[in-house]
Amino acid sequence: MNTTMNMNRVWPVVLALVIFKATSMTVPEWPSDVQLDNRGKSYGADENTMVEARRRQRQAAFAVLDRPWASRCAGEERKQFIGGLNAYYSHRQSQVYRYQENFGKLGTEYIAKQWSTADDRRIDHMTQEAYAGGYLRPSDFDDVAGKAVATVVMTERASGRACPS
Question: Over 80: is that where the pLDDT of 60 sits?
Answer without folding.
Answer: yes
